[in-house]
Amino acid sequence: MNEIVGSHDILLVTLDTLRFDVAAELAAEGRIPNLARHLPGGRWERRHAPGSFTYASHQAIFAGFLPTPAAPGPHPRLFAARFAGSETTAGRTFVHDTPDLVSGLAKEGYRTVCVGGVGFFNKLGPLGSVLPGLFQESHWEPEFGVASPTSFEAQVARAEQVVRELPHEQRLFLFVNVAALHQPNWFHRPGATREDGDSRATHAAALEYVDRHIGRLFAAASSRRRCFAIVCSDHGTAYGDDGYTGHRIGHESVWTVPYAHFLLDPTPAEAAR
After folding, report:
1. Nearest to 209 by CA among 228, 234, 185
2. In this predicted model, what pLDDT tens digit does every residue of 222-269 receive, in sequence order?
3. Are β-strands 172-178 and 111-115 bridged in parallel, bridged antiparallel, or unpaired?
4. CB neighbour list of residue 35: distance below 8 Å, 6 or more residues apart
5. Does residue 51 sit in helix, strand or coil?
6. DSSP H/E element including 82
7. In what order do the strands lie in the sheet with 68-69?
8. ∠51-55-56 over CA atoms, to 5°?
9. 184 Ramachandran zone, left/alpha/beta (phi>0; psi -120 to 50)
10. In 150-199, which ranges are continuous DSSP H helix?
11. Is residue 49 within 8 Å of 254, Cβ to Cβ?
């Protein structure tokens, strides 16, 4: 990461509430081709979430605690605040002297931009302003939120605008919290009605919807230079699993999440600039 920070743009996408089992099934069945083509080996990595709901998990992620590999560790981290005694800070870890990654990258000259999704990013009150307040620039509109059937398209359009208006020489840390997977998601399944409600199947349909548009986000993020991308879930959610529904609970469907990081290469024309 010490070679990447300063030379690459950085994209962090949290697919809010996405379950690992659904993500893995869709990748294996060829139902998310635009995501799968970037996944190492075409597969998601199985990891454990740092929190069981959005606010807790993102506080941890922005402190450098990305989802942890679901195998015995310790596992060196990509990013870490300088902290005496840390057993997951290694020589290849980007270490910053600020309390969070966002301000750490800003100190390195990055423009930090948040395109929010779920309510913890809506800036409509003090609690919904904490996480977007970490960034130099933050965006949220009702069209980006959980109730919008076209939320991700709207978020991608805003991200494209952000990139378009940024000076070419300016490094960018772009964060997008994708709301489409979160309940309600019944409207992503063709023919479904509100009365049908949300289910594991509509959750899967929401991921297919995201996949149809995420190529535009990847293209925008890598349009100026090589981009290091992290795509993961912040936590999962239960749909009647063992009698549980929702998240902020200690259940396998909540704690186990998909994760991937990879490089996005710019187009030849952009690389030559």
Report:
1. 185
2. 999 999 999 999 999 999 899 988 899 999 999 999 999 999 998 654
3. parallel
4. 27, 210, 211, 214, 231
5. coil
6. none
7. 68-69, 45-48, 256-264, 227-232, 9-15, 172-178, 111-115, 137-139
8. 30
9. beta
10. 151-165
11. yes
